[in-house]
TrEMBL record:
It is found in: Membrane. The gene is LOC18607623. This is Aquaporin AQPAn.G. It comes from Theobroma cacao. InterPro entries: Aquaporin-like, MIP. It is a multi-pass membrane protein.
Amino acid sequence: MAGIGVVEDEESIYGRNKYILRPKLYLHKVNISFFILSFPLRCRPGKVTEEKHPKASLSSKVLSLEELFSLEVWRASLAELLGTAVLVFSLDTIVISTLQTETKTPNLVMSVLIAFVVAVLLLATYPISGGHINPIVTFAALLTGLVSISRAAIFILAQSVGGILGALALKAVVSSGIERTYSLGGCTVTIVAPGPHGPTVIGLETSQALWLEIICSFVFLFASVWMAFDRRQAKAVGRVMVCVILGIVLGLLVYISTTVTATKGYSGAGLNPARCLGPAVVRGGHLWDKHWIFWIGPAIGCVAFALYVKMIPREHTHSY
């Protein structure tokens, strides 16, 4: 006589789940598997739970709303805030002092000092937050799946506030004349200068400035940040060397963007929207002219970098 019973199969014997319902057909004392339950249920003694939907778990992982209430994330964001504040204060001071001293090679001196400062600050913030101190790095990490949307939003907010605080600190220690002359070392595409027939606008074309931001942002991510994202390379090279390379690449891109154009009024590729935001908020005026370029350009560069990463065969990537 046929009947349905509960038995243990190989999976239940050798696996972790020791209680799996499998209908059996008893026929002349010979057990014959009749069919396997395909319902999305896990049957255990006294407990029946539904399988988690893969899309729901993926959505939860991408958003990670619990990180909005994580003390660890907010501590890391504090490091991002302070690191970005020090970065903006230092870089804008370098820009002003280099231009004020009227050295023969201001672009070169500026780039070397920027590379050094960036490397030091990355080493200081890396153990706490991962050493982003730049919305470009955070946005690229988000697009490549290394950080969640919640963490990225908190970091970018902290970096933006840090940029403003750094500009406020710089304004507090420089004279009004220097602030007015050098615009707190902010990011500019064009400026208004006196001309033979009255004030005239000088600087770089909008399309040129946008392309420079896109290209320099992509090169920055491709040549250096990808090394930091790749755990195998980062381990092989070492944390100190990775931070030094990041600083060198950033300084080199600043030198290239300011030298290749050789246009008065253009401050060079921003390569850090938070650094450009700080002086614009504190100083205002012409620093808001075409300010969007310093956000949209890097964003497009990050998207291009993320697409490049997605096209790489999985066996050739060793990310986090």
